[in-house]
Write a structure and sequence with these properties.
InterPro entries: AAA+_ATPase (IPR003593), ABC_SmlMolc_Importer (IPR050093), ABC_transporter-like_ATP-bd (IPR003439), ABC_transporter-like_CS (IPR017871), Mo/tungstate-bd_C_term_dom (IPR008995), P-loop_NTPase (IPR027417), PotA-like (IPR005893), PotA_ATP-bd (IPR017879). Keywords: ATP-binding, Cell membrane, Membrane, Nucleotide-binding, Translocase, Transport. The strands form four sheets. The protein has a six-stranded mixed β-sheet, with helices on both faces. Strand 7 (175-179), helix 5 and strand 8 form a beta-alpha-beta unit. It is built from nine helices and 20 strands. The two termini are 24 Å apart. By secondary structure, the protein is of the alpha+beta class. The chain has helices at 62-70, 112-123, 128-141, 157-169, 187-204, 215-221, 239-244, 249-254, 377-389; strands at residues 24-33, 36-46, 51-55, 77-82, 85-86, 97-101, 175-179, 207-212, 224-229, 232-237, 259-266, 271-274, 277-280, 292-297, 303-305, 315-326, 329-336, 341-347, 359-363, 369-373.
């Protein structure tokens, strides 16, 4: 797998103006710790004003990449450029970058306003009037003006996260780095902050580079997502493309959930013969090698019905083993007659109220099947395992 997949620039950013302020570029960057290579010959370009997420399981190299951007780690080789200028030789405070961490690191004895002003005061180049003005502006950005005189202990976790964000933005950096900033929040608050972060970034036009292992965070906020594995970028694209057209079996297994079916290409790559049936593809799988392949089908693409479909292809008979209510979605686990477990997710209002033990047919459209080489099986399983169990990456 190349470490430099195609990186088409997202629409709507400042790239076409010639102004490179806020751009980020990594050129053939590598980093090792104790003889273990964590980032391998990585190339990455971030456009001015873009919201880009580095997404991947623990140990994939995403946090190390962010730390090299921030200046907390030095690359063993390669270059780091910000706004078109090389910065890999500069310490963190010399870079036009600020970082927001999961740990808010607020000074408990200071008011919220004083916490936000701290960095400006340390510079000794900004006068008091300007500091007051910029602190007021930053408080307004994150809707925390009325809490300016409170101490951190008097705020909720979400409010403290807003203060940490304001403290970084008050310096007006060209690039803001965010390292798992929402990880300590409960789910509802995290979802609310995702919306607020995206709206704030869109309003400011500041370049955001966001590190997370949470797919929903990355997909909901980003202009583009770079999915990482073993120190390399597996795929970089807009969220829709990453989800609907994964470039590798790992990406397919890591982003969301997949049903993987093993079979053999037939009919010039137009079909895949699997145990118990035939999978019809919307276009020939010409890129796949002859022989065994893996077919990936999203759970939301699977239709579950008690009646056998008229079209015999892309169908598997089986028995419902479990039914789960996931908010507005019903999830069925179907034990196919082939022995495979098939996962299906159906909008609750559209679903038949099927129960465990019901005989059903699972089917899907040809356009919903993606084909990968069979040797990608371990890669796909690694993605699925990482998806369900990935903790936060070490700050190393």
């Amino acid at each position: 797998m190349s470490s430099s997949p195609p990186q088409s620039a997202p629409a709507g950013h400042r790239a076409g103006t010639g102004d490179r302020t806020g751009s980020v570029e990594l050129r053939s960057v590598s980093k090792s710790f104790g003889g273990v290579t964590v980032v391998k010959d990585l190339d990455l370009s971030v456009e001015p004003g873009e919201f880009l997420s580095l997404l991947g399981p623990s140990g994939c190299g995403k946090t190390t990449t962010l730390r090299m951007l921030a200046g907390f780690e030095q690359p063993d080789s390669g270059e780091v450029l910000v706004s078109g200028a090389a910065v890999h030789h500069l310490p963190p405070h010399k870079r036009d970058i600020n970082t927001v961490f999961q740990s808010y690191a607020l000074f408990p004895h200071m008011t919220i306003a004083a916490n936000i002003a701290y960095g400006l005061r340390q510079r000794r180049t900004v006068d008091r009037t300007e500091i007051r003005s910029r602190v007021s502006e930053a408080l307004d950005m994150v809707q925390m003006t009325r809490f300016a005189d409170r101490k951190p202990s008097q705020l909720s976790g979400g409010q403290q996260q807003r203060v940490a964000l304001a403290r970084a933005l008050v310096n007006r950096p060209s690039v803001l780095l965010l390292d798992e900033p929402l990880g300590a929040l409960d789910r509802k608050l995290r979802e609310d902050m995702q919306v607020e972060l995206k709206l704030l970034q869109s309003r400011l036009g500041t370049t955001f580079v966001f590190v997370t292992h949470d797919q929903e965070e990355a997909l909901s906020m980003s202009d583009r997502v770079a999915v990482m594995l073993n120190g390399r970028i597996e795929q970089i694209a807009d969220p829709y493309t990453v989800y609907e057209r994964p470039a590798t079996a790992f990406v397919a297994g890591f982003i969301g959930q997949q049903n993987f079916l093993t079979g053999t290409l037939a009919d010039g790559g137009r079909t895949v013969e699997i145990t118990g049936g035939t999978v019809l593809l919307s276009e020939p799988a010409t890129a796949s090698p002859p022989g065994l392949v893996r077919v990936a089908v999203r759970p939301e693409a699977v239709v579950v019905a008690e009646q056998q479909p008229a079209e015999p292809t892309n169908t598997l008979p089986g028995t419902i083993a479990a039914v789960s209510l996931l908010g507005d979605v019903l999830q069925y686990v179907v034990h196919a007659d082939t022995g495979q477990e098939v996962l299906a997710r159906v909008p609750r209002r559209q679903a038949d109220r099927l129960t465990g033990g019901t005989r059903v047919w699972c089917s899907w459209a040809p356009s919903d099947a993606r084909v990968f080489p069979a040797e990608a099986e371990a890669e796909a399983e690694a993605g699925s395992a990482a998806d369900s169990a990935a903790p936060m990456e070490s700050t190393k």
